[in-house]
Design brief:
Layout (H helix, E strand, L loop, with lengths): L2 E5 L2 E4 L4 E8 L7 E7 L6 E6 L6 E3 L7 E6 L4 E6 L8 E8 L15 E2 L3 E6 L1
Parallel strand pairs: 2-11
Antiparallel strand pairs: 1-3, 3-8, 4-5, 4-9, 5-6, 7-8, 9-10, 9-11
Length: 126
């Protein structure tokens, strides 16, 4: 069992930065591949980025490549998302999720993740 708690969301102006954190309980965190998703009002949950259990492999949504950076600290059981050059279209609730499957073709499918956090709101003003 993995429990995930996101933090770090907030209101920021366009062009600004935020760093999200996802703290995990339990010792199994280091064995899971992790992802960040986001969901804007009236839209489906969207894959943003994923990272392998050891941090060696990442997968990014094209629209955030070069602006967002995912990282993890397995000693602290924590996942991070550094978001720079934020745009109004980045506004959404951001969720972290854990999966036991590898970072294959299903990496962007929410139903292929085993555990989810409660989400943290990110609002980017224009």
């Amino acid at each position: 069992q993995v429990q995930l708690v996101e933090s770090g969301g907030g209101l920021v102006e366009a062009g600004g930065s935020l760093r999200l954190s996802c703290a995990s309980s339990g010792r199994a965190f280091s064995t899971y591949n992790m992802g960040w998703f986001r969901q804007a009002p009236g839209k489906e949950r969207e894959f943003v980025v994923a990272i392998s259990w050891n941090g060696g492999t990442t997968r990014y949504l094209d629209s955030v490549l070069g602006r967002f950076t995912i990282s993890r600290d397995n000693a602290k059981n924590t996942l991070y998302l550094q978001m720079n050059s934020l745009k109004p279209e980045d506004t959404a609730v951001y969720y972290c999720a854990a999966r036991s499957m590898g970072l294959g073709a299903s990496v962007s499918s929410p139903e292929r993740y085993d555990y989810w956090g409660q989400g943290t709101q990110v609002t980017v003003s224009s």
